[in-house]
């Protein structure tokens, strides 16, 4: 893993839970961190290029921003890669994981609304030729406080 | 799109549709879902192509934050790159009578990032509570699952940890335009 200095760590620790929605957010962060705005922008660009940050931006509640559904399908191991590629090819699928279970492919389908979502799932189900286990969210018990980053452990590895 | 000339009508409609996204909100979602531009004034950079100004982008994003459409605007770490190498989707068969209370308890545990109630599909699928656990190793995840198991006690009949063996695709929200591939 790339070396991250104390400013990188402070940036991540301070802003993984939210950054200020003000006219010049990076300048506001710079002021809090005691560095220049251009330094903050450069750091964020670098951390993003290193994939330490997936992005700097809004985290949407999928259920409120549109329709989405977790689905799983059980396919024989020999057909798994082909089925996985079929699922990943859908531009509306935003997560697709192979998991160690009889239901071995798990993915999230998204759409603008419930009707469109149903059509997309039916289409993919027909293409896969196997029944989808459809697992809509009935209730979210969200807290999601973010994670303390294990900087010390990372150092030793 | 019709233009209302009656302010009170418009106020009523705005109050009723406070949480609904209009076309411009959706355009902002599309423009920001893979990240904000890393320039001094990111709002102006987003606003330009949409033909509005930066303060309008900011006002609308604030409203989406207030209504919960946006959970937060943040520097989103890639947990995998930061040492959380093991993630286990745990699934639990929890007594329906207690799931509301227990779901909240589980969601509050450290290491749990997502916790949802989902439907059973008997006989193939009997699990109705999903909790995503994150740790540095599988041992960590297993210890967390064990702690969770004793916490749930008799209300839980069965559980499984489904480790991901491969991440095949992972992107931010993919909100396609309404007209996109309807069929």
UniProtKB/TrEMBL annotation, chain A:
Q: Which UniProt keywords apply?
A: Lyase
Residue ranges of every copy of the Siroheme decarboxylase NirL-like HTH domain listed in the record: 8-50
- Pathway assigned to this chain's UniProt record: Porphyrin-containing compound metabolism
Q: Which residues form the Siroheme decarboxylase AsnC-like ligand binding domain?
A: 67-133
* Domain of life of the native organism: Bacteria
* Pfam families, sorted: AsnC_trans_reg2 (PF17805), NirdL-like_HTH (PF22451)
- Catalytic reaction equation(s): siroheme + 2 H(+) = 12,18-didecarboxysiroheme + 2 CO2
Name the SUPFAM superfamilies for this protein.
Winged helix' DNA-binding domain
Q: What is its EC number?
A: 4.1.1.111
The Swiss-Prot or TrEMBL record describes its family as follows: Belongs to the Ahb/Nir family.
Give the multimer and partner information: Probably forms a complex composed of NirD, NirL, NirG and NirH. All proteins are required for the total conversion of siroheme to didecarboxysiroheme.
State the protein's name. siroheme decarboxylase
Q: Give the organism the record lists.
A: Billgrantia endophytica
UniProtKB/TrEMBL annotation, chain B:
PANTHER family the UniProt entry points to: SIROHEME DECARBOXYLASE NIRL SUBUNIT, TRANSCRIPTIONAL REGULATOR, ASNC FAMILY
Q: Which GO terms describe its molecular function?
A: lyase activity
What is the protein name for this chain? siroheme decarboxylase
The record's function comment reads:
Involved in heme d1 biosynthesis. Catalyzes the decarboxylation of siroheme into didecarboxysiroheme.
Siroheme decarboxylase AsnC-like ligand binding domain residues are 81-169
UniProt subunit comment: Probably forms a complex composed of NirD, NirL, NirG and NirH. All proteins are required for the total conversion of siroheme to didecarboxysiroheme.
Family (UniProt): Belongs to the Ahb/Nir family.
Question: What organism does the UniProt record list as the source?
Answer: Billgrantia endophytica
Q: Give one Pfam family.
A: AsnC_trans_reg2
């Amino acid at each position: 893993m790339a070396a991250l200095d104390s400013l990188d760590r402070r940036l991540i620790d301070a802003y993984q839970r939210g950054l200020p929605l003000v006219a010049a957010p990076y300048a506001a962060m710079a002021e809090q961190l005691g560095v220049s705005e251009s330094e903050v922008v450069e750091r964020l660009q670098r951390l993003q290029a290193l994939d330490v940050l997936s992005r700097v931006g809004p985290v949407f509640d999928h259920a409120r921003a549109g329709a989405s559904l977790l689905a799983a399908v059980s396919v024989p191991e020999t057909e798994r890669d082909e089925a996985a590629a079929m699922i990943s090819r859908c531009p509306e699928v935003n997560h697709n994981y192979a998991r160690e279970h009889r239901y071995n492919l798990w993915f999230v389908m998204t759409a603008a609304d419930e009707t469109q979502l149903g059509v997309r799932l039916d289409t993919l189900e027909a293409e896969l030729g196997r029944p989808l286990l459809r697992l809509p969210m009935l209730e979210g018990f969200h807290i999601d406080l973010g994670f303390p980053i294990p900087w010390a452990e990372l150092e030793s590895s | 799109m019709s233009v209302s000339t009656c302010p009170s009508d418009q106020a009523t409609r705005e109050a009723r549709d406070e949480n609904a996204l209009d076309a411009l909100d959706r355009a902002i979602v599309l423009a920001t879902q893979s990240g904000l531009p890393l320039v001094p004034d990111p709002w102006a950079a987003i606003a330009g192509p949409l033909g509005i100004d930066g303060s309008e982008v900011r006002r609308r994003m604030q409203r989406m934050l207030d209504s919960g459409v946006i959970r937060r605007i943040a520097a989103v770490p890639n947990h995998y790159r930061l040492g959380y190498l093991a993630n286990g989707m745990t699934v639990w068969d929890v007594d329906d009578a207690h799931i509301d209370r227990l779901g909240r308890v589980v969601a509050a545990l450290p290491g749990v990032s997502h916790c949802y109630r989902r439907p059973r599909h008997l006989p193939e699928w009997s699990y109705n509570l999903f909790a995503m656990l994150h740790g540095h190793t599988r041992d960590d995840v297993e210890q967390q699952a064990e702690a969770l198991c004793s916490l749930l006690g008799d209300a839980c009949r069965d559980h499984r940890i489904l480790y991901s063996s491969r991440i095949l695709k992972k992107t931010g929200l993919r909100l396609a335009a309404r007209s996109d591939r309807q069929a």
